[in-house]
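Dear U.,

For the methods section draft, I wanted the exact inputs and outputs in one place so we can describe them consistently. I've listed the two proteins in the order they'll appear in the manuscript figures. Please don't edit the token lines directly; just add comments below if something needs changing.

First protein:
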Amino acid sequence: MWFMRQAGRSLPEYREVRRGVGMLESCLRPALAAEITLQPVRRHGVDAAIFFSDIVVPLRLAGVGVDIKAGVGPVMDQPYRTADDVARLVERELDDAALSPIREAVALTVAGLDELSAGRDPHGSPGSDNSVGVGAVPLIGFGGAPFTLAAYLVEGRPSRDHLAARTLMHADPDTWRRLTEWTAELTGRFLCAQVLAGASAVQLFDSWAGSLSLADYQAHVAPSSARALTHVADLPVPGIHFGTGTGHLLAAMRDVPRAAGLVHSAVGVDYRTPLDEAAAALGADVPVQGNVDPALLAAPWEVLEAHVRDVVARGRAAPGHVLNLGHGVPPDTDPAVLTRVARLVHSL
């Protein structure tokens, strides 16, 4: 088990080390990014760390004008909505030197995780009884799916319905293809750098895929996501493919890592789809990840405990289950609740 967005504003130690440092800057300071990644592993005893970063970091490293504004999210220097906009954009390259801070941060994190693992009590620590071996804490690499990156670029900022992105997808499919092939290359190189530096798995986040129909996803999005994952297909790592609002896309999302050549992969399921229903849609050979409702982290313990137990029970319908949230940790979550959930799950 681990928690999506487990490193972040819910932790007082995170707020302390981030004081006065912008979000993207903190992602690109290797020692700081490593420390933030390690914080929830120390506190909660989870079974995996997720690399602290942001899906727009590869855009910044490729020279795109992007910032993360408090209370808004990623904001671009301009919307990229025409063929000329995209033509200028895709001339930018993410070169190997630009990825140096990422490689350094991952290496520092893996070294820190090794130290934490060596210090864990194999008989008593919350994270000792886990599927990756007693005491072992792997690092999961992080990357944004090409569609979600493209949607931010076209919209210029966060959007509820991604109308401009979906319009470009249909009005000018060639330009849309050029854009998503370019974002796939950025994400693929970003993920590959993390794995080569020591990450043990990768998760592809498609935050906005739920806004698409199944037909649009299969025709205009799945190929670019597979293209991104081909960058790590020859490396000995499993993959996790996650999106929000994607209950109708689960089987198509399952097929993306397979198309990329990943031998082992799981599908992340958000809180809207019960895991037994997801397992039935995915087939008997697909592990699942999820899907505790983040809203219940603020509910009375007896309500949350019953929900976690139900999620675990439903997860037994799949051949493997990584217990997680069905989306990220809300910033106002009491960290003690997350620790209590981790201990409950390990007790099961």
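Second protein (the one for the lower panel):
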Amino acid sequence: MIFNDIQIRSGVVGGTLFSTALNISPHDLLFTAIMAVVGAVVSFFVSYILRKLFSGSDKSKNA
């Protein structure tokens, strides 16, 4: 029974991944890559600005 359950799970997962892979267009991949880069850049700058804002207040408290 365990082997049958593993076969069913692997079949469902494999079929889902295969059908999804066939429906993803190169345009979707390019859009996803561009959005990931934009998100990473925005996240970097927001964390940089927040670090600068809060590190200045920490120095004045300790001095």
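Candidate sentences for the figure legend, describing the second protein: The chain has a mean pLDDT of 87. Residues 2-62 form one domain.

Thanks,
Y.
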